Amino acid sequence: MIMTGQRKELATIVGVGLIVFWVALVIGDSSPVKLAALVVFWGVCVLTLLKPLIGLSILVVMIVSNLSNNLIEIGFPGPSVAKLAAPGLIALLGARYLLWGDRPYVGWLALWLMVGFLALKLFGATYAVDWRVTLDVASGFGKDAIIAMLALAFMNYRNGVKTVVLSAVLTAAVICALGLVQVIGYSLPSNLEIFAHFGRFHGRFEGPIDDANFFAVVLVFCIPAALFQLLQTRNPLKLIFWSIALALLLFGFLATQSRGGIVALSVAFGILFLRLNASQKLAAIVALAGLAVVAATLLGPEVFDRLSTIVDLVQEQRVDLSTEGRLVSWAVAVEIFFSNPWLGVGGGNFNILFQDLALEMGLMFRGEGRSTHSLYLEVLAEQGILGLLYFLFIIWCAAVGLLGAYQQAKTHRNKRLENLYLALGAGLAGYLTGMALLHDAYPRFLWILIALAIEAGRIAQLNFERQNTETPHRSENASAEA
């Protein structure tokens, strides 16, 4: 609740902002679009000062929707939203600390783990074939780590974890809704279609990130969270809302035709079903089956032609071109590891070495460098066994953090928070399973989730401690009023 003094401070900030805008309008030579963008940006800043979790939600929406890159792609004339977002959120956290004493959350464990991983990547530049590529990879990871720590900074506010999860779920559901509109037969304007487009040649749903498989693993994370929202609600309107959201996510997931996504989602559901009671399992099966039938009906049977090849791979051991390409990449990654077992060849250098090694090994000729198509083999080949062990240690810390948060919620008998952490853990486990078949191309959202999981136990502890300290104060106030 903003007190009277705080309102005066906020009014001062708004007034200064309006004066700055008026001066820019009078003496500046910026275009009306850029000035309008400045007004919108300032309005968002004021709104997030009042409700800081809106800023966190905007950050997640931007990342899941690949907003900045897509706006650049369509020629958006305003300033880059990515260049505004991070400094704007840092300024927001700083302003709330200076004005009202709100301390940002600092995830020290996540910070030091990511600093260590960054150090390994930077050290790779000392022995890499192309050190410039390795430095670029390290720079990209550094930016991802900063964004992850920025998201963690909002965890001192109640419902911070829930904001991250639901912002991702609802953003993905809206993207899938845009895809559904196109399947039904309506054309979207190009500036909307780019956020939910289908592949030109293979017809698979790629969402906003130009790759059906990567979008599939994002949906793998979102589906368990939407399912739990559906199972735990008793409000009829919310029941309808979450049924629609879950149906859209399942539609989008099936439309990606991702075989690796099927495996990843199976892992996520397996973890969920281990913790659900009998009635919840039955409700989940009924809900998923019914909504999947609806989604499949909209897509048509041809979608399942590609997915059914999973059975062919297992039963008949037939390998299609896509699978063969992956197997070649994996074979080269293993060969690179054997040649450079301890520290690898440096970040980004697998692509440089791939073609020559593939030819030497008499493998499939692709005429170009290729990615490893496995995050874990990528780390193994480029950072060696030390890098892979360190990365697996980070994942282990994430699992420990989530288990700690889940146990605390269970101890305090907070069923909603218990379900939230269970959904987060199942979704992240599915995401990480999917990354066994995908390389490190769109890592920002993944690192936010990993950092959140690492700190989940401490975040839950702080939230419950805050609740325990607030409860006596409320009781005292009630007694005083009586």
Explain what this protein looks like in three dimensions.
The chain is built from 20 helices and two strands. The radius of gyration is 24 Å and the shape is globular. The two termini are 23 Å apart. A hairpin with a 6-residue loop joins strand 1 (197-198) and strand 2 (205-207). A two-stranded antiparallel sheet has the order 1-2. The protein has a domain at 1-104. By secondary structure, the protein is an all-alpha fold. Helix 19 runs antiparallel to helix 20.
**DSSP strand content:** under 5%
Shape: globular
Question: How many DSSP-defined strands?
Answer: 2
**Average residue-wise pLDDT:** 84
Distance between the termini: 23 Å
Order of helices and strands: HHHHHHHHHEEHHHHHHHHHHH
Main beta sheet: 2 strands, antiparallel
- The rounded Rg comes to 24 Å
Residue runs with pLDDT of under 50 for 5 or more positions: 475-482
Specify the helix fraction band: over 70%
Structural class: mainly alpha
User: Order of strands side by side in the largest beta sheet?
Assistant: 1-2
Query: With helices defined by DSSP (H or I, 4 residues minimum), what is the helix count?
Result: 20
What's this entry about, in short?
With 482 residues, this protein is mostly helical.
